[in-house]
Write a structure and sequence with these properties.
Blueprint lengths: L2 H10 L2 H8 L6 E2 L1 E7 L1 E2 L8 E2 L1 H13 L3 E2 L2 H9 L4 E2 L2 E7 L3 H14 L4 E4 L1 H5 L8 H9 L3 E4 L12 H19 L5 E3 L7 H9 L4 E3 L6 E2 L10 E2 L7 H8 L2 E2 L2 E5 L12 E6 L10 E4 L3 E3 L1 E4 L3 E5 L7 E12 L2 E11 L3
Parallel strand pairs: 2-7, 2-13, 3-4, 5-7, 7-8, 8-9, 10-11, 14-22
Antiparallel strand pairs: 1-6, 2-12, 15-16, 16-20, 17-18, 17-21, 19-20, 21-22
Helix pairs in contact: 1-10, 3-5, 8-9
């Protein structure tokens, strides 16, 4: 069954009923966590990056009233990196770009609910005092309330299109301003547009970052590439309550030996995609993969755990995504996602 149908079917079968049924149960140990990504709140003119206030309030009620443990993203990352277990249904909250509505709409609601978040700041917009963006005083206030601040470049550039020298200049400017305004350099980084490559990872590593985040769906796992962790991007389309519960209930599909290792496909397009599903998943029955350009794609299983995918044509320029899902029982899904990038010619 195609993943897009799996998602609709999961929601239709009653994700709300599943939530109610398990809410009172004990939290089990898990080796993965769901990390959410927001941008704007209550800014209806930007539906692709906005969540409506009613949607966001539903999200908060779900996270505080259901079987979820919301932890700071830095704590989640450290726990996964150390190979320690997390509570089942652990969730982290991130917000990108530093729009003004983070302070006016999201922050007071999250603070009242006792939910901490990580804000990834693109520094140029804040420095320019653009009316739709935060001020440094507001960033500091949220930091002082217990929230973490991460880096998001200076100008929100397409880092995979820039050379290493340009990216280093960009990161130098960004970190200089973050240190001046906040007193310390962050160790968490979110790639603008979720676009990354091994070359970009290496630059980020040079500047002392321990973790990088994309914008591809899936749960972060102990085996995930630490410089390209997945996040579920939420906007008006994917923020209805059933879709939200489907995502925060996701479990990681553990992946090893992913090819291509580099999400930048300037060397070979279409890529020869393959991955090995971890032995903790005893059967791959029900596994299906969906690509944003081609829809459902054929998969070939080699042995018990190896999967290979051959796309029917080169991938379009820009960003495309691959999602693979498998039933995990109790209305939940194992979920792996990645993003590919093809430079414009």
């Amino acid at each position: 069954m195609r993943p897009i149908f799996l998602l609709r079917r999961a929601a239709a079968l009653g994700a709300l009923a599943v939530l109610t049924a398990v809410a009172a149960g004990p939290a089990r140990a898990a080796d993965s966590a769901v990390i959410l990504m927001y941008h704007r709140f209550g800014e209806d003119g930007f539906p692709s990056t906005n969540v409506r206030i009613a949607q966001f309030e539903d999200h908060i009620r779900t996270l505080t009233g259901g079987p979820y443990t919301v932890l700071p993203v830095a704590e989640i990352v450290d726990t996964l990196r150390a190979g320690r277990e997390l509570p089942d249904r652990t969730v982290g909250i991130t917000i990108d770009d530093a729009y003004r509505s983070v302070y006016t709409e999201a922050f007071p609601r999250l603070k009242a609910a006792g939910l901490r978040f990580t804000l990834f700041v693109a520094t140029d917009a804040v420095d320019r005092r653009l009316p739709d963006f935060l001020t440094w005083d507001q960033v500091r206030e949220m930091r002082d309330a217990g929230n973490d601040i991460g880096a998001h470049s200076a100008s929100h550039l397409h880092m995979t299109e820039a050379d290493a020298a340009t990216n280093r200049v960009e990161m130098t400017r960004s970190l200089k301003r973050l240190k001046e305004e906040l007193g310390a350099a962050p160790v968490l980084f979110a790639y603008p547009y979720g676009e990354a490559s091994i070359a970009v990872w290496n630059v980020i590593r040079e500047f002392g970052f321990t973790t990088g985040f994309g914008q591809h769906s899936g749960a972060a796992h102990t085996t995930s590439q630490p410089f390209y962790l997945p996040r579920f991007a939420l906007n008006e389309t994917y923020s209805d309550l059933e879709s939200f519960i489907l995502r925060v209930d996701a479990r990681a599909l553990p992946i090893e030996d992913m090819t291509p290792e580099d999400p930048d496909l300037r060397v070979r397009n279409p890529p020869l995609v393959g991955f090995t599903v971890g032995a903790s998943i005893p059967s791959l029955q029900g596994l299906a993969c969906y690509h944003s350009q081609f829809g459902a794609v054929d998969i070939e299983q080699l042995g018990r755990h190896r999967i290979e995918i051959r796309f029917p044509a080169p991938l379009d320029a820009g960003r495309t995504r691959l999602n693979c899902t498998k039933p995990a029982g109790q209305g939940r899904w194992y979920w792996y996602g990645t993003q590919f990038y093809v430079p414009a010619e």
